[in-house]
Amino acid sequence: MAAATTVAGCILSFSLVPSGAGSGVAGLARLTLFLHAVAYFGFAAVLSLHFHETEAGLAEAAAISFLFGLAVELAQIPVQGRFATFPDVVANAVGASAVMLDNRAGLVSEVIDLERAVVEAFENLVSP
Questions:
Q1: CB-based burial label for 19 (10 Å; 0-12, 13-18, 19+)
Q2: Is residue 21 part of a domain?
Q3: Does a structural domain hold residue 104?
Q4: Which of 57, 66, 70, 104 is the most buried (most CB within 10 A)?
Q5: How many CB atoms lie within 10 A of CB 16?
Q6: How many structural domains are present in the chain?
Q7: Half-sphere exposure of 123 (CA within 13 A, CB side)
Q8: What is the DSSP secondary structure assignment for residue 17, as one 8-state letter?
Q9: Interatomic CA distance for residues 59 and 116, integer angstroms
Q10: For helices 32-51 and 107-126, what crossing angle results, to 10°?
Q11: Chain segment 49-82, per-residue pLDDT in tens
């Protein structure tokens, strides 16, 4: 869960920085929707590692990622230069739900298999 917390913290950091704060991302305005989708796909993918890739677990990861994105959009309302927009919410949903489609492609499952192999190797080192 530490990885999911880190990803969520990064999303919050980038999402709640006031617009005039010199963040240097103004030139990326055209990529905003793509960046939203990638961020929430990443968050859902990291969460899916915790839920261990069952269909229900992937759906939970996608739902949590989407709801977090919705909360972040609402949190932007009082931030100067930030706006909660419907297209951003849709991009968050697309990114979050893409983790369920990726289950068919296998990227997340490859990461989960790697995680299991590392845990197994560690357990073999620790256990006599």
A1: middle
A2: no
A3: yes
A4: 66
A5: 13
A6: 1
A7: 6
A8: S
A9: 21
A10: 40
A11: 887 667 788 889 889 999 999 999 999 999 888 8
Question: Do residues 97 and 65 lie in contact, with contact meaning Cβ atoms separated by under 8 Å?
Answer: no
pLDDT digits (tens, 9 = 90+) for 19-51: 654 444 544 555 788 888 889 988 998 888 887
Q: Residue 14 is encoded by which pair of tokens?
A: 């980038």
In a domain, 23, yes or no: no
Burial class (CB in 10 A: 0-12, 13-18, 19+), 85: middle
Cβ–Cβ < 8 Å for 81, 15: no
CA dihedral sign of residues 33, 35, 41, 47: negative
In a domain, 121, yes or no: yes
Coil vs helix vs strand at 126: helix
Provide the domain limits for residue 119.
2-15+29-126
Pairwise CA distance, residues 38 & 106, whole Å? 17
The C-alpha atoms of residue 38 and residue 1 are separated, in whole angstroms, by: 19
